[in-house]
Design a protein that fits this description.
The protein is mostly helical. It has a domain at 51-78. The chain is 54% helix and 0% strand. The radius of gyration is 36 Å and the shape is rod-shaped. The N and C termini lie far apart (99 Å).
Length: 93
């Protein structure tokens, strides 16, 4: 191998080694406290499939549905859900 090829190979190896090294200030950085992650690996989840916001949405929908059904049941119990049958002419509803 001639001198130019050896120099190019050495330069390429040095550049490759430089690119593979990272700048560091000597401190080890990691994503977070490993013990905290082990204690609670899914902090955003309230149940197996829902986050707290998903759970709050489900509760709001359930309360709204229950309230609407309450008023519908009340109207049915007080016979306010359909027109009277005492009229001489039929009334569509």
């Amino acid at each position: 191998m001639n001198r130019r090829a050896r120099t190019a190979t050495t330069a390429a190896a040095a550049l490759g080694a430089l690119l593979l090294t990272a700048c560091s200030n000597g401190q080890v950085k990691h994503a977070g406290d490993a013990g905290k992650i082990r204690r609670h690996p899914s902090p955003a989840m309230m149940s197996l499939a829902k986050r707290p916001s998903d759970n709050a949405n489900s509760i709001a929908i359930t309360k709204d549905t229950n309230l609407r059904m309450f008023w519908e049941d009340g109207a049915r119990a007080l016979h306010l859900d359909r027109p009277t049958n005492l009229t001489p002419k039929p009334i569509p509803h």
